[in-house]
Amino acid sequence: MNLIDGKALSNTIKEEIAAEVSKICKGQKRPPHLAAVLVGEDPASAVYVRNKVRSCEKCGFESTLIKKRENTTEDELLEIVKELNEDEDIDGFIVQLPLPKHIDENKITLAIDPGKDVDGFHPTNFGKMAQGLPAYLPATPFGIMTMLDRYNIEVQGKNCVVLGRSNIVGTPISILLSRKAKPGNATVTLCHSRTQNLADYTRKADIIVVALGIPNYLKADMIKEGAVIIDVGINRIEAPERKSGYRLVGDADFDEVSTKCSHITPVPGGVGPMTVTSLLTNTLQAYKSNFLNK
Ligand code: NAD
Predict the structure, then answer these.
(1) Does the pLDDT at position 27 exceed 80?
(2) Contact yes or no for 95/81 (Cβ under 8 A)
């Protein structure tokens, strides 16, 4: 079994981005600038946003964190989005999901200027992605495609099974894997909560992307020998022996499937760090389009 080390790859790519930024700026031009909006107190979201801001610093980006109270209204958030859309010093921004229940996430996503939508969630970017046009790719699927590419994992002609059909992971990764591109050209099956006899699909898969949010769901008897496992799940389970009281596990039962698969992404240290790196790659692209080449 080979570990697909997302953390190490992410560090390599961050170094590449930092080198490019330092070459472009040479102290004369302003650096790329990412803004992140965090509404409420969700602890997992706070950790994700902190990682994003820290990674910006590592790459020589400027970053702005806008923290808002849980009771921020939808109109107040729409106003912040409008200001960020219009701010020429901001190349791209994200609104960290999930948002508090009283705010309509779709309304917020639609309000973001697609040219600054470095999370790639706006329907304009999603549509362009589906048609194979240049677009900001959603960060998690983009990170997975980068891992497959850099680890030279053959995707063309393979049977890929995606578990989960969310707008941010399952559906876009199924599109990217099936696109006429490299990596891509796979035969993709998308399984979800209404799929019957799901293991019949996974047992035939060369590559499985599992994005369900169910701890240790994928077992050894559900995969074939030599399969590639991309584990997107990030689940907190109780671990009284730890100071934090919890530990993170993926959607694949690592101890079981790692004895049978050819490659696997660990949790933590797999897909997660690559998601952050993809966001930085998109922001660098936005900087070039919105500032350098304007
Ligand atoms: P989601 O809850 O939006 O979607 C889950 C999907 O799983 C749904 O499409 C549902 O149909 C399917 N599903 C649920 N139960 C099922 C079952 N028993 N059988 C088959 N399908 C089932 O989740 P999401 O936002 O795509 O996130 C999935 C997981 O990935 C979560 O653990 C999340 O924390 C994690 N995640 C990680 C990253 C990262 O950067 N590593 C990014 C996003 C999400």
Answers:
(1) no
(2) yes
